[in-house]
Amino acid sequence: MKRTARLFVLAALLVAGWALRPAHPATAQPLEPRFGVGFNGMLSTADGFGLGFRGRVSAPVNSDLSFALDLGLTGFVLRGRDDATYVFDPQLSAIVTLPSRGRRAPYLLGGLGAYVSFKDGNNDGGPTLHGGIGWVQTLNETTIFYEIDPALIVGERAVDIVLPLRVGIIF
User: Fold this and answer.
1) Using CA of residue 88, residue 93, residue 98, residue 103, what is the dihedral sign?
2) Coil, strand, or helix at residue 18?
3) pLDDT tens digits, the chain, 171 residues: what are they?
4) pTM summary value
5) For burial by CB atoms within 10 Å, which of 1, 44, 87, 135 has the most?
6) Sign, Cα dihedral of 151, 171, 103, 27
């Protein structure tokens, strides 16, 4: 990984640590961190189509705004093991929840991240800027989420686009 990408990831992790510190409750009920896991399908102009897993921890600031740290791993393996590419893509996001309709609520998310691609021992990729929309559907004790979160990968010589579609459960 290039030096600037390493510095970017380190800065993102430091900001995430600060953002995910316990929030001061602004209401009578304490606001606690939420954890989610899910699957994603990702279209990439650099690597094609891949499937992967994602984890997210979010810390609410209030009922409308939270900050989140995502860690994802996607494998572009449809051309076989020999031509496979694996991507690690952490993200730091701000999430704004819009007014709900019953047990379903839309949200907007955006922020910074990294796209670290591993293929044949070579590291590739770069920092990312992402912004998307998602929906949460409450169940009894858990919540289902689904989102689309396009990102621009700012590489050394080119800018690529990724289009992940995600679905998962929030605890």
Assistant:
1) positive
2) helix
3) 455 556 566 555 555 555 555 544 444 445 789 999 999 999 999 889 999 999 999 999 998 999 999 999 999 998 888 888 999 999 999 999 999 988 999 999 999 999 998 876 566 789 999 999 999 999 988 999 999 999 999 988 889 999 999 999 998
4) 0.80
5) 87
6) negative
